[in-house]
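Moderator note: this is an archived Q&A kept for reference. The question asked for a predicted structure of one protein chain; the sequence and the answer are reproduced below.
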Amino acid sequence: MDLQLTGKRALVTGAGRGIGKAVAQRLSEEGAQVALLARSRDQLDATAAALPGPSLVLPADTTDDAAVRAAVAAVADAWGGVDVLVNAAARPASSAPVPALADLDDDALRVEVETKVLGYLRCARAVAPHMVAAGWGRIVNVSGLNARATGNLVGTVRNVAVAAMTANLAEELGPHGVNVTVVHPGRTVTERTPADVATAPAATRIGRLVTADEFADVVAFLCSPRSVAVTGDAVAAGGGTPGVAVY
């Protein structure tokens, strides 16, 4: 299937490593021009060097609205607009023990909202005028399956908030040809995953963890004109959660 992404101008945040890096690679392989945003220039340079197509390196912190607006303006100046945004710049889910309510301080949630929820919102707000003017666009927000689980209050709240924001943006932007979707990864194999964990059986319906490349395949489809029927909804891409029926 031709995803019809050739020549599309994409901005991927969190593109220096992990899921963001894999998404940037896949979009480039599909023919998109890819602007890479993250805080570390060294990581972005490494990502850019591996891409088969045109790229821009944009070191920026999504907690800084002025920096986000400047980065989007740089893409628009270089390429004439922005067609696709993939928001993946977020702190990785912690494997540390979850604190009890009495030990949970405000900053534990505040930093997640500032980075993931508001960070995604800043990027969407900056690119939306370009997409609306063009009459077409795709915004994909990478969230997490903690949105559908309890046991980690901060993880659940931040990911549910991203899903709620996505639905609201989809309703506002949909009439202008802009689809907005949230994708929930589970635990995903990236370049930082130990080899024994990456190859071990896992509690998913496919019996193993999904890789970042496999997750990127799902995102690439949602970034494409082929995905017009999907907007405002949440797509789970974690290999399937046993014992759960989501409807």
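Archived answer notes: Residues 106-134 form the longest helix (29 residues).
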